[in-house]
Amino acid sequence: MAGEHGRLSRFVPLPNYVFDTLLPELSATEPRVLLVVARATLGFSDGAGGRVRRAQISQRTLCAKTGRASAAVSRVVARLVELGVISVESAAGEPLRLERKPSPLLRRPVRSYDDLFLAYRGKNSNATAPR
After folding, report:
1. pLDDT-based confidence at 127, cuts 50/70/90?
2. Chain centroid offset of residue 122 CA
């Protein structure tokens, strides 16, 4: 029982909006990426009573934590940005457009996010601005 309580005491405060509105609209891979971003942001306190607003999450980490290929993760990140659920930012906090160039090998757009920051932007995120 004690071990179970320990697991329940550590959680990510995910807004009801994700479950009630967003989840039915997402494909199979999109919730996986969203949950990784939420864990890296909403899952941590900023030290001032709020939640971390953004986190640097590499393409490799997204692939490892979601179990999905790089091209699939790239497409999903672009779609979640399009939906306004997450944003992709530079190290300075400036929002970035996802201009995707076709890969000659894959013949589809691919973008690596190794030097970029992802931020949860869903409704009711209670995330604080960076310091």
Report:
1. very low
2. 10
Higher pLDDT, 81 or 123: 81
Query: Domains (ranges, CATH) in the chain?
Result: 28-44+52-90+104-125 (1.10.10.10)
Token couple for 111: 């973008």
CA nearest 96: which of 75, 65, 117, 114?
Answer: 117
Report the candidate in 63, 43, 62 with the shortest Cα–Cα distance to residue 53. Answer: 43
What is the residue type of 28?
A
**Structure pTM?**
0.76
Token pair 């900023």 in the structure block, residue: 46
Contact assessment for residue 79 and residue 87, using Cβ atoms and an 8 Å cutoff: no
Nearest CA to 62 among 34, 92, 43?
Answer: 34
Instruction: Return the half-sphere exposure (C-beta side, CA atoms, 13 A cut-off) of residue 98.
Output: 22
